[in-house]
Every structure is written in structure tokens, then in C-alpha cells.
Amino acid sequence: MAQTIVKVEGMSCNGCRGKVEKALQGIPGVTDVSVDLGTKEAIITGFASHAEYVKVIEDLGFTVID
């Protein structure tokens, strides 16, 4: 399985973390998601595209940092 780390700006609480995790887990091909508020990283396991991750995160109102 491929693992991707995406930096997400704007997350500040467990509610934010939960929204991002739930949205990313809804992408077909994603098998696991873990979000770390301290590092502001979403660690995604699966076979979806980076563009899909970015779209889902930005649709929630957060910013992806490349």
C-alpha cells in the first residue's frame, strides 16, 4: 500500500482532525488515515491521487501546504 503525507494548515482541534480523517477515508482506494494536529499532517494509506486528497481537504476549508 502506498502512504502519502499531506501537510494541512488550519486544523486546530479534534473536531477539525475528525472532519479531515472522515473526509479522506471516504475517498475510494483509501484504507487508513491518521491526522496529527501537532505536525499538521494527514498520513494517508491507499491508492488515490494527491489531487483527490487536496480537493477533499480544501473543500473542508483547510489549506494544503506543499
Question: How would you summarize the topology of this molecule?
Answer:
Blueprint: E1 3-9, H1 14-25, E2 30-36, E3 41-46, H2 50-59, E4 63-65
Antiparallel strand pairs: 1-3, 1-4, 2-3
Organism: Sporomusa silvacetica DSM 10669
Keywords: Metal-binding
Protein name: Copper-exporting P-type ATPase
Structure description:
- The protein has 66 residues and is of the alpha+beta class.
- It has a single domain, classed as Alpha-Beta Plaits (2-Layer Sandwich), CATH 3.30.70.100.
- It is 33% helix and 35% strand.
- The chain contains two helices and four strands, in the order βαββαβ.
- It has helices at 14-25, 50-59, and strands at residues 3-9, 30-36, 41-46, 63-65.
- The chain has a four-stranded antiparallel beta sheet.
- A hairpin with a 4-residue loop joins strand 2 and strand 3 (41-46).
- The relative contact order is 0.32.
Give the helix tally: 2
The low-pLDDT segments are none
CATH-level-2 architecture: 2-Layer Sandwich
Largest sheet geometry: 4 strands, antiparallel
Question: Would you give the CATH topology?
Answer: Alpha-Beta Plaits
Query: Strand tally, please?
Result: 4
Percent of residues in beta strands? 25-35%
Helix content: 25-40%
Report Rg: 10 Å
- Overall shape: it is globular
What is the average per-residue confidence, as pLDDT, rounded to a whole number?
A: 96
Structural class: alpha+beta
Distance, first to last CA: 22 Å
Tally of discrete structural domains = 1
Protein name: Copper-exporting P-type ATPase
Domain HMA: 2-65
Keywords: Metal-binding
Organism: Sporomusa silvacetica DSM 10669
